[in-house]
Amino acid sequence: MRLHAVDERAAQLGLTRGMMLTDAKARLPGLLHAPADLEGDHAALQGLAEWCLRYSPFVAADGEDGLLIDATGCAHLFGGEEAMLARMESQFAKLGLKAYLGMAQTVGAASALARFGPSRAIAPQGGVSEALSALPMAALRLEPQVLLLLQRLGLTRIGQLYAMPRLALARRFRSRVAEEAVLFRLDQALGRQPESLNPLHPAPSFRAHAGYSEPVQDLSFLPEVLRRLSADLKSMLVREGQGGTRWTFRALRVDGQVAALSLRTARPVREEAHLARLFKERFEQMDLGLGAEYFILSADEAVPFTQSQGSWAESEEGGSASGQEEALAGLIDRLAVRLGAEALRLQGPCESHVPERAVHSRPALDGAGVADPAWSPSIPSAPLRSPPPRPLRPLRLLTKPEPIEVMAEVPDGPPMHFRWRHVPHQVTRAEGPERIAPEWWRLQDGVFEDVRDYFRIEDVRGRRYWVFRAGLYQDRAQNHALPGGAPSWFLHGFFA
Amino acid sequence: MSGETRGTSRSALMARLRRSIDEIEQSVPVLEEAPAALPREEGADPARIILRPGLHELTASYEDMSAARGFAFAVLAARQKHAGALRPARKALPPAFLWAMRLEERREFGAPYGPGLLDAGFSPERLLTLYARTSLDVLWALEEGLKAGALAGALGEVGDVGLTESRRLSLLAAEHRMPCWLIRPLERKEASAALTPALRAEAESASAALTRLRIRPAPSGRHVHDPAAPGAARWQVELEKAKAGPMPFRVTMEWDHETHCFHMVAPLADRALPAAPKTQSPPAGEAAILPLARTG
């Protein structure tokens, strides 16, 4: 067993990473140690990255112990670069973490400065190469073998590479991979090769944030926070003529963790009252722990907002058509937020003659419009028309047809008696069969589904059902290879 | 002397209070969208009553629940037609409805099926179907639906409803002038077995709904082309309770999916066939009976 990480005190006493645990214990008999929890470390780093969204919307984890923050255009919010780093250091210290900070124009240089440079090092504009020259080669994020090679060549400081002609440098390496790695990393650090960070979250379209000097611990204060943030956000959205459809509310807790709520809306939204109603349902799910001091509300997705102007003549009670549409979208949002987007559904027609595939059910939140214009009435409302082109369909369709026991008079005829869920029914009237063949382009487990013969039947009491027989008697009789002798019967739906 | 006057004043006070309570109670169900459309003599038409703004309960025994659901779809179709006729300017989009049920109901009795709804005369593109986990969620969704003012009606399938819940829904429906329908099985789960029949009946009638209709399936009407096939859907509808409404009665109703109308079925003249003829060419004796049965 080896040491995975050592704290500052242990490092001072001469322990290093990678040392055998037995050696370390021999040196320091009172050493406290615990097994490394790599997954836990990773999760904690991700949580900390979320927490750093307070500094910039672009944050990414860097390796297993670093965070990259794109502070472009953010430093002035904290009173300049030095002040920003000082603030970060003190805020991390409050979490009980010692942060090593570095700031530069490139990801590579910032990473090098943070890990190997002086405390709170900032590479000045155009002075990156100078700032890096004294740092050891390890700051270039190279593989250990490559580092060893460089060491053998007598190259220990980054600055030694600057003077060397690139061709000469290349000649010294035997392996092309190592040569390319060194040059690539050097170019990245100096900004000759582009490098971008891969942010945790895609850039939100709009974002408002607010910090509080005292941690907020009481959930009942959240609506007030939200009101303040959504008012800020609204003015931004109005300025750009946009409305948000995906929203995230983040509470950055004092313990370095983040509580977040995300929701979607059916239509672009920017009204504070609407957002307040949607989030209100979910606030109780937020775990503020010991309190949160910083809040971010972001519209992660925004689309052009179509302003609906209410008619001056509209009546108080009915509202305009567009007002009604908006109210409907608002209702969909509220129901979906509280009961889940999957719970609230609309259905549209599908091009298929197999009953269960003839409809397509989708969450009501999907799609900007609420209307699905594709349904065309099979029976226009004009009275006294010829019967519909296809036999009637049931009002309710079971998700999965349920097997029934059937007694039929003739093999291919309608049932006379059937037993469904242990209850016997006597059939008085029947219509059918309507033969529905499987779609030949669809195979289920390599075989076609059975042909179905549907019957619309009514029992003695007047209850009307839709039942079908899967398979044909003659097929079964001819083909003895098929399992089960007689075709099976199923109940599939209910009529009025 | 003084005791006597106090007595009369108290009784007068009580009478006044009773009167004002009556007034309050009667004022609630009178809310109508178009009062002129409801002449007094049509008050006994369940097809009209069920479309009135307010809370309506549709009950059925457990095995007849699919009939109650079918009846409810017909009611929605009638309401859709009614609401569409009230607002001809908004013909482009049919009025929206909310149908809330529990996941349990979907598992047992399936989901509303678009093509079938279309056949019954209801256009399903704006039917919001909600599959909630509990009855409480269903009731909450109905309340939200009534409050939103964006629907033409809200319908919920619940296992059980208490007096408080039904009162809340009833008040909201009256306030927002919207019909709200509740479908529930007749058997109450809790403690129903422990009660005496009289007490059970009282517990079941404890509801603030405007009306309660008991739905039973009925043999369907005559099929135009095929006497052996089920015809137009029929139900036996019993008005069990109506606030400030007609006396309880029982009728057989038929849904005409072409004109989107309910028809009353005259009990004798228009009655259904007793059973399907066994073959397409019935024996002479059976054929002779049929006209008699119709004239009866």
Largest sheet of chain A: 6 strands, antiparallel, barrel
| Secondary-structure-derived class of chain A | alpha+beta
Provide the succession of SSEs of chain A.
HHHEEHEHEHHHHHEHEEHEHEEEEEEEHE
The coarse silhouette of chain A is elongated
Shape of chain B: globular
Beta-sheet strand percentage of chain B?
A: 15-25%
Overall number of strands of chain B: 10
CA distance, first residue to last residue of chain A:
73 Å
Class computed from helices, strands and strand pairing of chain B: alpha/beta
Strand runs of chain A, count: 16
Provide the spatial order of strands within the biggest beta sheet of chain A: 11-12-13-14-15-16
Tell me the series of helices and strands of chain B, N- to C-terminal: HHEHEHEHEHEHEHEEEEH
Oligomer: heterodimer
> How helix-rich are the residues of chain B, as a percent range?
25-40%
Helix content of chain A: 25-40%
Residue stretches of chain B low in confidence (pLDDT < 50, at least 5 long) are: 27-42, 275-296
Largest sheet, strands/sense/barrel of chain B = 9 strands, mixed
The largest chain-to-chain contact, stated as pair and per-chain residue counts, equals: A-B, 66 and 75 residues
Strand content of chain A: 25-35%
Q: Which spans of chain A of ≥5 residues are poorly predicted at pLDDT below 50?
A: 309-319, 378-387
Description:
- The complex is a heterodimer of chains A (496) and B (296).
- By secondary structure, chain A is of the alpha+beta class.
- In chain A, a hairpin with a 3-residue loop joins strand 1 (59-62) and strand 2 (66-69).
- Chain A is 29% helix and 25% strand.
- Chain A has helices at 8-12, 21-27, 38-51, 81-94, 107-116, 128-132, 144-152, 159-163, 166-172, 176-190, 222-240, 272-280, 321-339, 473-478; strands spanning 59-62, 66-69, 102-103, 121-122, 206-216, 242-253, 258-269, 292-304, 344-349, 359-363, 396-408, 415-420, 423-436, 452-459, 464-470, 488-494.
- Chain B is an alpha/beta fold.
- Chain B is 38% helix and 21% strand.
- Chain B is built from 9 helices and 10 strands.
- A 9-stranded mixed sheet of chain B has the order 4-2-5-6-1-7-8-9-10, with helices on both faces.
- In chain B, strand 9 and strand 10 form a beta hairpin.
- The longest helix of chain B is centred in the first third of the chain and has 26 residues, at 2-27.
- Chain B is globular and about 75 Å long.
- Mean pLDDT of chain B is 75; it is low at 27-42 and 275-296.
- At the A-B interface, helix 13, strand 9, strand 11, strand 13 and strand 14 of A face helix 3, helix 4, strand 3, helix 5 and strand 4 of B.
